[in-house]
Amino acid sequence: MAKFYIKAGVFFLLFLFVLKVTDRLVVHDELFHTTFKSVFKQKEKFDFIFMGNSLSQRSYDVNFLDNEFNSQSINIGSPAQHFYITKAIFDELIDTKEVYPNKLLVVTISPWQFENFEDDTWKYLQMTALDEIDFSFDYLNIVRDFYEVKDYPKVYSPTIRFHSKMADNIVETKKRIDFFEETNANGFLLNVETKLSQSDKDSKKDLYKLASEYRQSINNSQEEVINDKAEQIIKEMIEKSNEAGVNLLFVTPPAINVIFEKEKYGKIKYLNRILKSNGAHYIDLNNYFHELNLTYNDYGDFSHLNKYGCKKVMPFLVNFINKEFTIAKNPKKPSKQKSDIETANKAVNLMEIVKSVSEIESYRTLFTPLDENYQDKSAFILSRISTEESAFSSSKKISTKAGNIYKLNLVIKKGNKGSLFGLRIQGIYPDRVDAVFDLDKGDVLGIKKSKDFTNESASIEPLENGWYKCSITAQVNSDFVKILFGPTSAEKDIVGWEGKTSEKQKFILFLQVSHLKKSFNKLNFEIRMII
């Protein structure tokens, strides 16, 4: 009998070891995992850290913020994140001095974040953050509050949670994490272009009227306690941030459903009082709906702003931050004077460094060899194989010298599915320059630079037999860059050319691509190119 128990114990320990290993290979939410790891595992320093639920991901045009302060920001919020989990992440941050934000910690807050829901989707979304935070008594209390005992194995182990999708998930997780790391993802979702449908607008006809009455309606409402933990949690966050010397700002982003759910006005009033009575820096942006010039077209749904709304909110929020806090701008990285630039070496062609297609990493794109050459160089068909997610091809890091001028040339010919093509030279986020080319008309549709890249330019030169040489040039203030390129569509902005697209075209299935297990029924573009 003793041998049986020994064997059972050994088997159980072996099982736990295997489970621990596979748990590292399967990640619930790759974007949150990547940003959380940047802060807590790699201990990268950020100027602004944002926390909370999906509103934290989709309400702030952080590009404007970082351009204003010459700063670097990151978001460690996740969809539907309950405020108890936000508090657990806050505690982990405040206990780790090395990861304190240099300038400001921004916490998204609303009464809805304190509610427990019984539906499986809500419970499932909480696991995104639970997978990442430290195992502690707070962790155990959260699990006990949110889940039944039968759910515990799924909560504790993503391997058990995704056991039926392991083959797909391990590979897809690796690709997505690589993608977010390669693009220096910062956890914000700022390229949402979706707008409310006419039927959505019709269902909320009184929006502007209710928005103008919102502040007074809150004041006139009967205060309602959120729950017995809310005040304690908020008070602890304020006290701990003060003790640590961390600037803390609470924000309630503008949301249509907040304005319309009058039955929650009492809880909003309670939240306002708790925050202000404890000396918190706080702003409810729903009070400023008209000052922000928000309209129906600034929303992707009733809860979330789209990219147009985000651009309206952040300048207003920056003004508020400057009034509430004394935050100095970071000095700009030094750049060479014009005379230095004129005497600098000739622009270095980055494609001379990347000499083989084998050195290019593909993210939902595919290279297919083509029986066609250009000046004795091999040609490939570059295909975009997903419309649901961003897609591009990228080099690995290329060492550069800050202040020098670099150029990216590609010889390209349009295929039979699409004619727009994007190029990017990218440094440390948000440093980059983007250009989009029309291979049908032979035009440069636009060029845009971000942050510290300067002297940007783009050109397109017609060659024989429909080939074009597309070029993008910039003075680079970075020790390394990557080059990104890929098909795009007319609906995308210049700086977001690699994003998902709504265009639907012919079915092509690439069975030989081992990491794509689903059958794609859309192929957007096909571009012939020379490397």
Automatic annotation (TrEMBL):
It comes from the Bacteria. This is SGNH/GDSL hydrolase family protein. It comes from Candidatus Dojkabacteria bacterium.
